[in-house]
């Protein structure tokens, strides 16, 4: 892969496969596209197709040659009518309505919590299995919250072809990236307490935030006051506490997602989790510093071997060269990178570890995880 710059999240081995009109940003897919149309495959719909994650849904579907017999591209009334060419076929973006899910087997949602709450149950009642990327249903005890590499059994029995609709929730991006690395270690030594500090990219706030970071960077370098529309303060050359609302307990909503979602996914209401979430001026891909306290002993060498063999994880841990995971290295990549694997010196024996993790928020933190869930439905 060619080098990735901070103001470009497209790598040189991608091409513009979709042919949008002049008002629409291009959606990308890799050069190794294969036709996925199959008569016996499920029909799918992408809700919020014009957004950053919606675009990535299409890219991942192409990357993984996801089989489908038909695909609907759905968005708001404002975006309806836009034209795309996807895998050699022309599509028109349709306005999302209650009738949109007639005959749809799987719907991938990434249009915000309010849209999910309004249309998710409608789709389910029509027999559609909804994979929702918002926070709307994550803590609903009747809705599975799934990372395929971590807790696939949570959606056991939910399959395409049964005629039954269902809701499946995609976890928050920070939770997915964290648990991809922490879970293999948790399985071996059982996590008693986890302390997470996140360094979250603009991509987590959508395409508009990415555009504002680029604009602000140019403005500040030109000596101009920065445009602050997405965030209330300067983002370029700065960092600040995550912009999620702060709750009565002093934690913000992003931090509490890590706490609550970890407990649900691990099915352990007693695991202790605390988090501090920070926005950093990085275009794409989140980083996290994770401190783990275990019930059982786990030395750093064993931990490194466990992580090297964990699905969806790559270890970048070169102490000699001081080379560890960075957001640039994982941008547009599926795997979560782990490094800085070391014993926590503040704890006795081998019952504590520190690790540093990077993962693409749009990719594994959102679209890829959702498509992997959809693959499990087949």
UniProtKB/TrEMBL annotation:
UniProt KW Amino-acid biosynthesis keyword: yes
Semialdehyde dehydrogenase NAD-binding domain residues: 43-158
Top EC class for this record: oxidoreductase
Active-site feature positions: 173, 286
Metabolic or biological pathway, per its Swiss-Prot or TrEMBL entry: Amino-acid biosynthesis; L-methionine biosynthesis via de novo pathway; L-homoserine from L-aspartate: step 2/3; Amino-acid biosynthesis; L-threonine biosynthesis; L-threonine from L-aspartate: step 2/5
PANTHER family in alphabetical order: ASPARTATE-SEMIALDEHYDE DEHYDROGENASE (PTHR46278:SF2), DEHYDROGENASE, PUTATIVE-RELATED (PTHR46278)
Self-association and partners: Homodimer.
Protein name: aspartate-semialdehyde dehydrogenase
Organism, as annotated: Quercus lobata (Valley oak)
Name of the coding gene: LOC115982119
């Amino acid at each position: 892969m060619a080098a990735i710059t901070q103001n470009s999240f497209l790598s040189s081995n991608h091409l513009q496969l979709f042919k949008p009109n002049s008002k629409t940003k291009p959606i990308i897919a890799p050069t190794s596209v294969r036709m996925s149309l199959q008569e016996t495959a499920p029909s799918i719909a992408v809700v919020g197709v014009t957004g950053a994650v919606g675009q990535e849904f299409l890219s991942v579907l192409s990357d993984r040659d996801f089989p489908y017999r038909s695909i609907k591209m759905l968005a708001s009334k404002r975006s309806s009518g836009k034209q795309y060419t996807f895998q050699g076929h022309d599509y028109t973006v349709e306005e999302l309505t209650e009738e949109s899910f007639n005959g749809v087997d799987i719907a991938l949602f990434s249009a915000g919590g309010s849209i999910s709450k309004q249309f998710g149950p409608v789709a389910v009642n029509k027999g559609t299995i909804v994979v929702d990327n918002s926070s709307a249903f994550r803590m609903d005890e009747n809705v599975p919250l799934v990372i395929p590499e971590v807790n696939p059994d949570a959606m056991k029995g939910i399959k395409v072809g049964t005629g039954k609709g269902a809701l499946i929730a995609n976890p928050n991006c920070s939770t997915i990236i964290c648990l991809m690395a922490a879970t293999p270690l948790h399985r071996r030594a059982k996590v008693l307490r986890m302390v997470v500090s996140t360094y979250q990219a603009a991509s987590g706030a959508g395409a508009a935030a990415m555009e504002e970071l680029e604009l602000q960077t140019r403005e500040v370098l030109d000596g101009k006051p920065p445009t602050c529309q997405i965030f209330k303060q300067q983002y370029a050359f700065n960092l600040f506490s995550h912009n999620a609302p702060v709750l009565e307990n002093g934690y913000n909503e992003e931090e509490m997602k890590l706490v609550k979602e970890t407990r649900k996914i691990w099915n352990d209401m007693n695991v202790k989790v605390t988090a501090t979430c920070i926005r950093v001026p990085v275009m794409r891909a989140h980083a996290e510093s994770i401190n783990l306290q275990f019930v059982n002993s786990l030395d750093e060498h064993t931990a490194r071997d466990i992580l090297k063999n964990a699905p969806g994880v790559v270890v970048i841990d070169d102490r000699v060269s001081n080379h560890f995971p960075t957001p640039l290295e994982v941008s547009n990549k599926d795997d979560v990178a782990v490094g800085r694997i070391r014993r926590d010196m503040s704890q006795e024996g081998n019952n504590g570890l520190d690790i540093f993790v990077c993962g693409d928020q749009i990719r594994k933190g959102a679209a890829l995880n959702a498509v992997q869930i959809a693959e499990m439905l087949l």
